[in-house]
Design brief:
Distance between the termini: 26 Å
Structural class: alpha+beta
Radius of gyration: 23 Å
Number of helices: 17
Largest sheet: 7 strands, antiparallel
Number of strands: 17
């Protein structure tokens, strides 16, 4: 039996009265996930000021048997940072670990705390004519620790890879309170398992990330953004290959979206407009960047891409940004798809991936299958063609009641979509993590050997099962 009174008293001794609170008014905003799908309870909320305090708190939790739910910006999409309804866990807020160390412009690296906001890191890197090459819609709230724990992606994965590729070193507190310090990056290190990579993407179930050393990239000298209309989604794959051949490393982003998504955004944003004079079944948004020395040639390269794509009948029309304001306007159309769809009504949203070479065919095959299986729905697929990441949304029929529809037909739709993804050798989670939302589905569809390894690693590193219970790791089959 856990003596919560004794634990709370000891937590106050470790963190001070402000470092650990049981005040409901302060805790309540952090008990519900960003999407509003999961709400839990917590004993209290800890806000340590240092890695050493995190270590002391974790040791205390291990001593008392208290569960820990690590949390950054609480902007996750899969309920991975939300406690369950049992009220047996504390929220461990890492937002106070927000120091950004000196930027090393020669090594192009920086060490920062897990609580650093992504936008703040972008700003600091820019002060040194560098950049952190990962961005996403929630950059104003997402934290470095959360991005590492979920191996976040974003719109620049095509060129720079996921968060996993951006991490040079890591610091984490393990389940027994030990501090694992591997912040110093080594190009070669063969001392056994790469524990850094094991922790990345583990969603706080194996250890609590407290700091990281990150790679930075040179600041770009300029960019041009192309917006093109396509007759069918399969053309996008050939267009991507052509862009890679013509642009090389300068190809930074390649996004696709159907006309339904553009229509929703134009209705949602009164100031938005269609970049092209006519409507098309599909659109591609292509970003090409250059360093300072080659920035002036970007418009010429953009024109060449459009000319060749038109000559090859890959596109029906296209344009490129004349300035940075127009480039941002193009991206705003893409970034506004999710809120525009939410304004239409309830939908089941899926973050999935398939082999890059098969993404267009997957969309063409499964969209009519989903709509035929669930009459009245509209299946929309958009996302990062360059890395096979599909944001697969299924809109409810008109008049459907949100919560009721999501719990009943919505769950059947998700099972159907995930079965389709598995059939196409894909993944049910591309960049948002498993959390609690997809945990049971991972157990249903995951490779038995892989699931056995996941459970074994979890038990070895967290034998008491205190770190983020109920997330990521499927329960043992009964």
């Amino acid at each position: 039996m856990i003596d919560y009174t004794a634990f709370i008293s000891a937590a106050h001794d470790v963190l001070g009265p402000r470092g650990f609170t049981c005040d409901a008014d302060l805790i309540d905003p952090w008990l519900t996930d960003w999407r509003g799908r999961y709400t839990g309870k917590a004993i209290g909320m800890a806000s340590p000021q240092s890695t050493e305090q995190v270590s002391q708190l974790v040791r205390l939790c291990a001593q008392h048997g208290v569960n820990i739910v690590p949390q950054g910006g609480n902007s996750g999409m899969s309920g991975g940072a939300t406690p369950d309804a049992s009220g047996t866990a504390i929220i461990l807020s890492l937002r106070q670990l927000n120091d950004i160390g000196p930027v090393d412009p020669n090594a192009r690296q920086v060490t920062c705390g897990a609580g650093v906001i992504l936008q703040s890191l972008h700003t600091e890197a820019e002060r040194h004519d560098l950049r952190f090459p990962l961005t996403l819609g929630g950059k104003g709230s997402a934290t470095i620790g959360g991005l590492i724990s979920t191996n976040a992606g974003g719109t620049q994965v095509l060129r720079h890879g996921t968060m996993r590729e951006q991490v040079a070193g890591i610091e984490a507190v393990m389940a027994d309170g030990q501090i694992y310090n591997s912040l110093t990056p080594l190009k070669k290190d063969n001392r056994g398992f790469d524990l850094k990579q094991l922790l990345i993407g583990s969603e706080g179930t194996l250890g609590i990330v407290t700091a990281a050393t990150l790679f930075l990239s040179p600041r770009i000298g300029g960019r041009t953004v192309l917006w093109v209309g396509l007759p069918k989604v399969q053309n996008a794959r050939d267009l991507l290959i052509m862009c890679k051949d013509m642009c090389g490393d300068g190809l930074e982003g390649f996004e696709i979206l159907p006309d339904h998504c553009l229509s929703a955004v134009l209705d949602y944003l009164p100031s938005a407009r269609n970049p092209l004079s006519d409507r098309h079944r599909w659109y591609a948004l292509i970003e090409i960047v250059a360093d300072t020395d080659n920035a002036e040639s970007l418009n010429d390269l953009g024109e060449s891409v459009l000319e060749k794509a038109l000559e090859s009948s890959l596109i029906e029309d296209g344009t490129y940004s004349a300035n940075e304001t127009q480039a941002e306007a193009f991206w705003l159309l893409r970034d506004s798809i999710s809120p525009a769809e939410r304004a239409i009504g309830p939908a089941m949203q899926h973050d999935i991936s398939v082999p890059v070479s098969r993404m267009a065919d997957f969309i063409a095959d499964t969209v009519p299958r989903v709509e035929n299986a669930f009459p009245g729905t509209a299946a929309l697929a958009f996302g990062h063609l360059g890395d096979g990441n599909v944001h697969y949304h299924v809109l409810a029929p008109k008049g459907a009641i949100g919560g009721v529809w999501e719990e009943e037909e919505g769950k059947r739709i998700s099972i159907f979509v995930h079965d389709c993804v598995t059939e196409w050798d894909g993944s049910i989670s591309a960049e948002h993590g498993i959390g609690q939302m997809k945990r049971d589905e991972l157990g249903r569809l995951g490779d038995p050997a892989a699931l056995s390894i996941l459970r074994s690693v979890k038990h070895a590193l967290d034998p008491q099962g205190l770190l983020n219970p109920g997330k990521l790791i499927p329960a043992e089959p009964t």
